[in-house]
Amino acid sequence: MSVPTQQHSAPPDAPTADTLLATLGLWVELGWLRRVDAHLVRFMARHVPEAPASVLLAAALASHQLGRGHVCLSLSRALAEPRATLSLPPLEQSEAHLAEVSVALPEAFLADLDAGRWAEQLAASRLVSVLAQADSPAGHLPLRPLVLVGERLYLRRYWQAEREVAAGLRARMGPSEEGETRVSDALGERLRELFASNQLDPHGEPDWQKLACALALRQRLTVISGGPGTGKTTTVTRLLALLQAQALAGGTDGAEGELESDETGHLHERRALDIRLVAPTGKAAARLSESIRGAVAKLEVPDAVRAAIPREASTVHRLLGARPDSRHFRHHAGNPLALDLLVVDEASMVDLDLMAALLGALPAHARLILLGDKDQLASVEAGAVLGDLCEHALPPRYSPALCADLSRLTGETLEQAIAVPDGQDLEETSATRGRLADHVVVLQKSYRFSADSGIGALARASNAGDRQALRDVWKAGYRDIAWLKLSGPEDRDLEKLVINGYRPALEAVRERRPAREVIDLLLEFQLLCALRRGPYGVDGLNQRVARVLMRRGLIADERGWYSGRPVMVTRNDRALGLYNGDVGITLPDPAAGGRLRVFFPVEEEATPDTERDGQDTDIQRFHRGVRAVLPSRLEAVETVFAMTVHKSQGSEFRHVLFVLPEGANPILTRELVYTGITRAKSRVTLAGTRRETLVGAIERRVVRASGLVL
Ligand SMILES: Nc1ncnc2c1ncn2[C@@H]1O[C@H](COP(=O)(O)OP(=O)(O)OP(=O)(O)O)[C@@H](O)[C@H]1O
C-alpha cells in the first residue's frame, strides 16, 4: 500500500485530491476519521472531479465534526489547530508516534492557506453554496451538499436544521398572531400569592423563581436554566397552575371564587389548556413525571386546577410520533401537534435535529418552555441549543420595558443594573440578542444541596473552573464527598465500593423481588466513567465488575445473558419503543416459566398499593411498572454496571462512584466533571490515580461550533 508520508511543513506542490482521498482512507483505518466521513467525500469527488484537496478536506472535516457534536466546521479554528479536527487519541499525538505511523496530517493539505483563501476556494466549488451571514435570505441558494456561512462550513442538512431552529425560536419571540397579550394585574396578584411561601433571600436577591414564572406568563418562549434542585419543576408547575386557573375561568382573570361557582366538569374539560410534558429520554421523562407529581402535591390551588395539570411526561420522540424505520415524524408543520403549551425538560440533551423537528411541529400559538442545565454536557448528537440560548444569560440583562413589567407582576425590585437600554445592547451582544435575553432566566440557588453540601460545593467549584476553590472543598471535610486514590485499575477499595453499591439490587434479584423494585434499587448506586476505552473506561470496568460480582456470588455468570445483568439500549429501536439510554435489568420472568427477560420501567402513574391489595397475583406484582422484552430482540444493548457520564445524563443516583482516567484527555472537560458530579443525589466518590487529573479537567471547556443566531 502506498502511504503518503508525514508532512509537517508545506509540501513543494499542493497535494492532489487523490492524495487526500488515499489519506482519508488511512485516517479511517487509524480511527482518526469515521468511515461515513470518507464515504461522503469520495461520493462528492466522484460527482465533482475537479474539486481540489482543500475543498474535499473541508468536507471531510465538516462531516467529522458532526460526530463530535459540532454543527459545522470553523475554518479559522481548523487552521489554528488542524490536528484537533480529527479524533487523534491523546497518546497518539506525540511526534514520535506520528513519525512512526507515517501518515499525512491535515496541515499538509492546508499549507499556504488562511481562512479567507480557504473560504474563496470553497466558494468557487460546485459543492458549496455561499451565504454571507446566518440570517441572510437563502431564497435562491443553489442545492449543493455544503453551505459556507462566513467562515463556517456546514453539511447542508445541518445548516437547514440550524436555520429552522433559529426561525422557529425567533417566531416565538415576537407577539403572537393575536397580538401582544398583557398579563393582567389580577394574574400578577395570583402569581404573588403562589410564590408568597418562598423565603426572602437574606442577601436581597430577587425571587428568580417568581420572575421566571412571570416571564413565562408574558410570552411564548421561555428558557429556564438551573442546576440540580434549583426549583425548575416547582416553578413550571406553578406556572401551569396559573395558566390553567386562568383558562378554566374562561380565559378571563376571574377570581378563584368564580372558578369554583363555575365548576361543571364538562366545561372545565373544554376550557383547560392542552399541556404536554416531554423529556429527551425515557428515564428523564420518568423523572420529570415523578417530580411534577411531587410539585403538584405541594400546590395550594383548587382541585379543578390541580386536576388540569398533567403528571405524565413522555419522550420527545413519542410526542412527535416517531415511526419505525423512518427519520421522519408523524407530526410536522403540515400536521402540527394539538397542544397549547409544551414543557421540555433536560433540554440540554435535545440535539439540533430534534429541536428543529419539535419546533416545526409546534402550532404557532403554543407556548414553549425549555428547562435544563446550561452547564451540563450538551447532546450526544450535534448541536448545543440550550447552551447557545443561555450563552449570555448571566448576568441577566433585561430590557427596561421588561424590567418594569416584571416588577409590576412580581412586586420584586429589579436592580436597574440588569437592564439594557431599549434598542441598545452591551458591547459584545447584538441588538437582536438583547431580545433573546428577555426570554432566558437562570435559577442559581439550589434547594437540594444545602450550604453544607459537599456535592453542591464540588459542583460549584468545578463549574467555575476554580482550582483553589476545588482544593478548599476537599479540605473542608464534607461528609457527602470523598476522594478515592486508586493504585491501579484493579484497586481493592474500588472493588469493595462497587460490590457494596450493587449488592442490594442483586440480592433483590436473588430474592425474586418485583422487577420495578430491583430497578429502583439499581438507581441507588452507579459507577460512572469519563471514557469508553482504556483501563478506566466503561468497557474494561464493565468486564472487571462483572467478574468481581461473580466471584462474590452476586451474579451467576459474567458473559451473555444472565440474571441480574443491567443493560442500556445504545440505539433507538422505534419498533420496540426503546430509546438510546433506556436502562433495564435481566431477570427470570415468572410469566415465562422463569426464562430470562429484560425488564424496562414504563411511564405510568402509580396506583396506591391500598387500591391494589389483594387484587394482584404474584406475576402481576412482579410485572407492575415494567415491561418485559425478549433478550434476543434487543439488538443494540450493553452491560451497564459502568456507564459513561454522557449516557448518564437525565438520570440521578443516590451514590455515584465517578472514575477518572489517568492523565489529560480532551474528552475530560469541565462540563463532563460537572455533569458526573451532579448525577449524585446524596453521595459522590471521585476515584483516580491523581487529583491533578480533576484539576486539569475543570480547566478544559467544550465550545461547540455552531452559528445559531437569534
Ligand atoms: N423556593 C423554594 N423554597 C424551598 N424549597 C424549594 C423551593 N423551590 C424548590 N424547592 C424544593 O427543592 C426541591 C427541588 O426542586 P425542583 O424539583 O423544583 O428542582 P429542579 O430544578 O426541577 O430539580 P432537578 O431538575 O434537578 O430535579 C424540591 O423538593 C422542591 O420542593
Describe the structure.
The chain has 710 residues and is α/β, with parallel strands linked by helices. It is 40% helix and 14% strand. The chain has a six-stranded parallel sheet with strand order 7-6-8-9-5-10. It has a five-stranded parallel sheet with strand order 11-20-19-12-18, sandwiched between helices. Helix 7 crosses helix 16 (352-361), helix 20 packs antiparallel against helix 28 (670-677) and helix 22 (492-510) packs antiparallel against helix 23 (515-522). The chain starts with 16 loop residues before the first helix and ends in a 12-residue tail after the last helix. It binds adenosine-5'-triphosphate. Residues 198, 209, 226, 228-234, 291, 295, 447-448 line the site of adenosine-5'-triphosphate (ATP).
SSE blueprint:
Elements: H1 17-30, H2 35-47, H3 53-66, E1 73-74, H4 75-80, H5 95-101, H6 115-123, E2 128-131, E3 146-149, E4 152-155, H7 156-173, H8 185-194, H9 208-218, E5 221-226, H10 232-248, H11 256-261, H12 265-271, E6 275-279, H13 282-298, H14 303-307, E7 313-315, H15 316-320, E8 341-344, H16 352-361, E9 367-372, H17 385-389, H18 400-410, H19 431-437, E10 440-443, H20 454-464, H21 467-475, E11 481-485, H22 492-510, H23 515-522, E12 525-529, H24 538-551, E13 566-569, E14 583-589, E15 595-601, H25 609-612, H26 618-623, E16 626-629, E17 637-639, E18 642-644, H27 645-648, E19 653-659, H28 670-677, E20 680-688, H29 691-698
Parallel strand pairs: 2-3, 5-9, 5-10, 6-7, 6-8, 8-9, 11-20, 12-18, 12-19, 19-20
Antiparallel strand pairs: 1-4, 3-4, 13-14, 13-17, 14-15, 15-16
Helix pairs in contact: 1-2, 1-3, 2-3, 7-16, 8-10, 9-10, 10-13, 20-21, 20-28, 22-23
The protein binds adenosine-5'-triphosphate (ATP).
Organism: Cobetia amphilecti
Family: Belongs to the RecD family.
Keywords: ATP-binding, DNA damage, DNA repair, DNA-binding, Exonuclease, Helicase, Hydrolase, Isomerase, Nuclease, Nucleotide-binding
